[in-house]
Amino acid sequence: MATQPTRELEIFPNPKPGRDYTIRIRIPEFTCLCPKTGQPDFATLLIEYIPDQKCVELKSLKLYVWSYRDEGAFHEAVTNQILEDLVDATQPRFMRLTAIFNIRGGIDTTVVAEHRADGWSAAAPVELP
To answer: For the residues 78-90, what does the mean pLDDT come to?
Structure first.
């Protein structure tokens, strides 16, 4: 059993690479530190992605997220860094990371960062009666 955080993201082959489908991951216990005060920041991370050839393995994602616990980072920087690391590991067709930070000092922050693979476009939404 892993007992240490790591920045290594493991991947596995997409079982349906010929189909656009969405994977949604909710991580309600993200923590990092405020780079100004050293106080903890808490957030819920929402990851939505359309894989191409690779998917992220969830246990490695858990250990990766854990690696930020003692790191100071601005909300905007940490959100974009996590997105970049996930995109580098999985090379998805599309990925969106929404980081919803808890209220601190009377202010809450939500940061949304996206990646689209070159040449990929979303299918038209389906309207059902």
So the answer is: 98
